[in-house]
Amino acid sequence: MSSKKKSWITWSALAAFAVVAALAGRCAPSAPKAGSKKGAPAGASDLAVAAQKVYVPPGDLDEYYMFASGGHSGQVYVYGLPSMRHISTIPVYTPYPATGYGFDDESKAMLGGLTWGDVHHPSLSETGGDYDGRWLFVNDMNGRVARVDLRDFKTKQIFGPVPNVSGNHGSAFVTPNTEYSVMSSRFSIPIPKGTAASIDKYATDYKGVISAVKIDPKSGEMTQGFQILMPPFDYDLGDAGKVASDGWIFFTCYNSERATGKLEVTASQRDRDYIAAVDWKAAEKAIAEGKGDMIGGVKVLDPRKVPGIVYFMPCGKSPHGVDVSPDGKYIIGSGKLQGVTTAFNWEKVQTAIRNKDFTGDEDGIPVLKYESIKDAEVPVGLGPLHTQFGPNGECYTSLFVDSAIAKWKLGTWEVIDKVPMSYSIGHLTAAEGDTVSPDGKYLVGLNKLSHGRHLSVGPSQPESSQLVDISEEKMKILYDAFTEPEPHYAQIIKADKVKPIEVYPKDENKNPLAVWDVKDAVVTRKGTGVLAKVIVVRSTITPTAIEVEQGDTVKVVLTNIEQTTDELHGFGLLDYNINIVVDPGETKTVTFKADKPGVFPYYCTNFCSALHQEMQGYLIVKPRKG
Ligand code: RUQ
Ligand code: CUA
Description:
Layout: H1 3-24, H2 46-54, E1 64-69, E2 75-81, E3 85-91, H3 105-111, E4 123-127, E5 130-140, E6 144-149, E7 154-159, E8 180-184, H4 202-205, E9 208-215, E10 222-230, E11 234-240, E12 248-254, H5 263-266, E13 272-279, H6 280-288, E14 293-295, E15 298-301, E16 310-316, E17 319-324, E18 330-335, E19 341-345, H7 346-354, E20 358-362, E21 365-368, H8 370-373, E22 374-378, E23 384-389, E24 394-399, E25 404-409, E26 415-420, E27 425-431, E28 440-447, E29 463-469, E30 476-483, E31 490-494, E32 523-526, E33 529-537, E34 540-542, E35 545-549, E36 553-560, E37 569-573, E38 578-582, E39 587-593, E40 598-603, E41 616-622
Parallel strand pairs: 10-15, 33-36, 35-41
Antiparallel strand pairs: 1-2, 1-31, 2-3, 4-5, 5-6, 6-7, 8-9, 9-10, 11-12, 12-13, 13-16, 14-15, 17-18, 18-19, 19-22, 20-21, 23-24, 24-25, 25-26, 27-28, 28-29, 29-30, 32-33, 33-34, 36-39, 37-38, 37-40, 40-41
Bound molecules: (dicuprio-$l^{3}-sulfanyl)-sulfanyl-copper and dinuclear copper ion.
């Protein structure tokens, strides 16, 4: 190769690099680099420092749990931080053979015939605005909210589909004492659901709905709360007020144009859309006073008839996230194509409400004056989506267009630092970041793309998460982790707040069909119904043969009588599409029609002992007698 050609290649490569660097962010990359750095231990490179910060030696435990949405996988992924190790997958809206979820009668009933859901926003239960480690709520676009019990990391309830709510994206944000988990319509429709109206009636006949799901403070059980009728905008995200703004909840919405068709054009006409400020305590009171109308089986409040429950705060057009500062005094939101994010001052919002400082209304909902309620427009960079908080007024805003995180300060509004993300960050989450007292320390960027930062796995590339050290003035990327599609939001909780059990205590098992002595593991028949009470314990499935007649309805009740940690057993029934997994002390039921004649082996699917392979039996389906 001639030296002339070589230098041309070098120059073009440099130029390409410059373009990429310019696209990636306006600041110098602060990913770890080999080589010495001020402040690092003598002789240690940035890489070594980063490696040490994330290294959790074998046998040691992580400091935090991170619960990440699994998007349209319908699951929740559990990570340890700072190692970023994927520890566990909690199936919520999708069957998961690994844990037998969606195969037994109980979880199948919970899924209710829907075998996928699009999970977006995990929301840890709170007491006094602090994560209490009891439950995790997660939404699904099908108008549902699920509760995962953090005592056993299992989905215990799926509430919904809730009437009138369509495309439940702005969810499952909980209020500071887990009084409510909220929902909102991303796709306004005519209500009640099931009503049809042509699309040219969109502006008048289609409705948005904000729905509050009531949570029992003792059991976590969800029931229908109230709903509020909203103009046909697209409600996107929410956050509950806290401390100063406790009793309120905020939702962003785009398409205040009430447009249809190509929204990327039609819904970008106006300069501003809104953040809806909802006084949920006032709404609760109005419902108690009988002010709701029954629509689709739910009590719905109409702000035209019940003034004072909702106000619109104007915001840059097409906003995405809205985030309330730890003290509840600031509400952060912005247009997602802007170069600034707006800090709204809660005190000013309240004053404007008191003084009726309105510029108009939308279907009876007063619109506050932007200039009266904003404190600052912070020049964070292009494409601000979401903001998380540190312990001392630090804010971290994700920038989709810039593909970076900006760090800035509440009060001074000064942008302090920027770190590029690889690539195209969506959400971000800080340690204890949604509480009244964030920890600082760690931040995770949840990126939409990962191209090329991992071994190639073909066209379907994993999503990426990047761990960022926020313990110092400058942010530093420590680690890249990858996952299946698709993380939207995640929350990070101190590990010692979560107290999971190791086995289900025998005396808590109240299932009337559970048996604990192998002599009780029997098969009985009533007409064409067969009941098999089965015990699984190392290393036998008792009974070892179950005889039925073709066409029988067979109900198998499996009890794992182990009280030893990690001694799970499975019940895989070949050709019948059944795989049940039972944890120590747990009972699960599966009911099926024995419609295929023949002999079908069943076996333990979880490796449990040296004689695991012997843990097997046969279902014998004989022709019907007579
Ligand atoms: S979204 S990238 Cu579904 Cu929460 Cu913001
Ligand atoms: Cu029980 Cu393998």
